[in-house]
Amino acid sequence: MEFGSFLVSLGTSFVIFVVLMLLFTWLSRKSGNAPIYYPNRILKGLEPWEGTSLTRNPFAWMREALTSSEQDVVNLSGVDTAVHFVFLSTVLGIFACSGLLLLPILLPLAATDHNLKNTKNGTDTTSKGTFSQLDNLSMANITKKSPRLWAFLGAVYWISLVTYFFLWKAYKHVSTLRAQALMSTDVKPEQFAILVRDMPSPPDGQTQKEFIDSYFREIYPETFYRSLVATENSKVNKIWGKLEGYKKKLARAEAILAATNNRPTNKTGLCGLVGKQVDSIEYYTELINESVANLETEQKAVLAEKQQTAAVVFFTTRVAAASAAQSLHCQMVDKWTVTEAPEPRELLWQNLNIKLFSRIIRQYVIYFFVALTILFYMIPIAFVSAVTTLENLQKIIPFIKPIVEITAIRTILESFLPQIALLVFLAMLPKLLLFLSKAEGIPAQSHAIRAASGKYFYFSVFNVFIGVTLAGTLFNTVKDIAKNPKLDMVINLLATSLPKSATFFLTYVSLKFFIGYGLELSRIIPLIIFHLKKKYVCKTEAEVKEAWYPGDLSYATRVPGDLLILTITFCYSVIAPLILIFGITYFGLGWLVLRNQALKVYVPSYESYGRMWPHIHQRILAALFLFQVVMFGYLGAKTFFYTALVIPLIIASLIFGYVCRQKFYGGFKHTALEVACRELKQSPDLEEIFRAYIPHSLSSHKPEEHEFKGAMSRYQDFNAIAGV
To answer: Can you tell me the distance from the alpha carbon of 171 to that of 166, in angstroms, rounded to the nearest whole number?
Structure first.
């Protein structure tokens, strides 16, 4: 990419961001748009904005974001969201401190050398073609064996040390944040429960419920409360889903009747398009009565006959539950597997009955499948990144040559085509990875999202970073390599491809933070969809709420996306130091925009109390490790005699990761007893805690008449137990 095209891309992205930000400041002041721009506050009963919409400062969102405290984020969006901001601020600190030293030192050193000029004149040539003015500010312009390479080696040490400092500080902070949340005096159901899996078959004459009750009463006679045995709910869930759908349709029909004074009708066939014409209210009322009867019959059958070898076990105190969750209950590790219970809303009931060894086999099979996916995805991504350069497109599609020779069209295509093609290609993957993660037998939604996030991160690194870096160069020079397959030819090829891919990634990062965060802030697409649904589709308040409900921050894609930018910035921070400015802008602007969204827009769908952080920490270290390896190879390609001095840093990164895991990870895997022993402000309602875990499809429509016998054991006091 030429320097002019890069400036056009950067300028266009900036203008789009400014336009989107101005749209946000205008649209967010209109009361009719409040459900799109302030849903979090509305759901919590708070005022959407301070003062009136007519006098509100158009830039007040920036002030509110900057002045908000971490406790504000925890109160409105939970600990997981606060931990995400620790991640953003930590990376911002790493790049800011690195840039303060590297930019004023490395940029002048690179700009005043003449390696690329000599290459263009024909000496030390590795490939044909032109070079961008931006390459003069990169390590590519440093002559081989130059003493200036000492400064670049020192930069690798500086970035590594800064990263170690900020990561250690962040791990301590997140550990404290998690402990404070778990020490809360509020009653939280998951702190009184454990998840039990891999239960053996009960002895003859005992039900699964009686077996698990007797087992835990014997071990915890004073603190065991009761158990909820998992059941096979696929059929009852289907009936319940249909019942809820009929209720919504009945409410919709009644709303139409109230608005028009005409009784609505519908056809009973496929999608309401064919079949007999019937009165909607009478039809759905009849279906609801029929479904309720079917649901109650199936509930009784499920609770009595479809019990599984897993359960949620409840205790009377938080300390007892925390102690039980980290204790070995059976001599055989594949029996009575016990872990902390997830929140009721994130429990994946369909996975609880999967046995230990089956989970292990599933995990390795899925890892193998993901590895194949990475390899096979790399082929089309490499093809897309190589083909979507204008030079290669003209080779493949000759008839477009007259079009791309038009200066304005050529500039726009060079600026955006490869990046947009790559973003669209990557958008197809997250749902597949989340599905595969759940297929491993993971019991909680947050755990599945962490697993999917990890897969997506490694996929992005291998396919986006490595694939794009090498693909374009290999596409053009494969014939030269075939004719002269010498090691020095390949090393020179890799050495020149790294810095010359920097302009692509500079544009990629700018596209992500200007246009990506501009769309995030303005919420233009959700706004349009909401108003279209509200006008033409929604008839009831429930339908309107469903139309504007925002969802959560989507950690499964957001975290690996941020980590990809982190990896790119790390790996090019010394080779092309200018990228540090873009990395700082990305994470700084991201912190500001997402702070606003966390305080006003997104509603968390679960709370794991910061368990995402160890995974984020591990992948930041993986990105640092990759950066150090890349610099080891690139300094070697520059024939720098002291390249081996990078090796101690690689070893230090491994040791640092091990020390952090040994010191901090235990507090994330389990709840420390000193945390769980804090007093509550009121005595817990154990019956309410128990009922929080009952699946919706098993909740009775007439709670006073349905006792949930079979899978749900009743609590008995210690004296009664002792008398049995």
So the answer is: 9
Return the pLDDT at 403.
Answer: 64
605 with 463: CB under 8 angstroms? no
The number of beta carbons lying within 10 Å of the beta carbon of residue 275 is 12
Question: Distance of CA 387 to CAs 393, 396, 398, 428, Å?
Answer: 6, 8, 13, 19
Please provide the distance, in angstroms rounded to a whole number, between the alpha carbons at the two ends of the chain.
82
Owner of token pair 């755990």: 447
Give the side-chain half-sphere CA count within 13 A for 100: 6
Higher-confidence position of 461 and 672 = 672
pLDDT band at 52 (very low <50, low <70, confident <90, very high): very low
- pLDDT higher than 50, residue 481: yes
Query: Which contacts (CB < 8 Å, 24+ apart) does range 652-659 have?
Result: 652/160, 652/164, 653/160, 653/621, 653/624, 653/625, 653/628, 654/625, 656/164, 656/167, 656/621, 657/618, 657/621
What is the secondary structure of 622-679 as a DSSP string? HHHHHHHHHHHHHHHHTT-TTGGGGHHHHHHHHHHHHHHHHHHTHHHHS--HHHHTSP
Nearest residue to 226 via CA among 214, 238, 236, 237: 214
- CA 342 – CA 331 distance, rounded (Å): 25
Question: Are 693 and 347 contacting, i.e. CB atoms less than 8 angstroms apart?
Answer: yes
Q: Rounded mean pLDDT of the chain? A: 83
DSSP 201: P
Which residue, 231, 355, 658, is CA-closest to 363? 355
User: Comparing C-alpha atoms, which of 425, 576, 567 is closest to residue 503?
Assistant: 576
Residues 42, 173: Cα–Cα separation, whole Å: 30
Question: Residues 621-634, buried b or exposed e (16+ Cβ, 10 A)?
Answer: bbbbbbbbebbbbb
The pLDDT of residue 702 is: 47
Residue type at 236 in one-letter notation: V
Going by C-alpha positions, the residue among 696, 722, 721, 676 that lies closest to residue 226 is: 721
> Which residue in the block uniquely carries the two structure tokens 């921050």?
553
Residue (of 302, 326, 334, 320) closest to 199 by Cα position: 334
Q: Are 497 and 469 in contact, with CB atoms under 8 Å apart?
A: yes
pLDDT in tens, 247-281: 999 999 999 888 888 888 888 877 767 878 888 89
Question: Which 8-state DSSP code applies to residue 406?
Answer: S
Beta carbons of 541 and 39 less than 8 angstroms apart? no
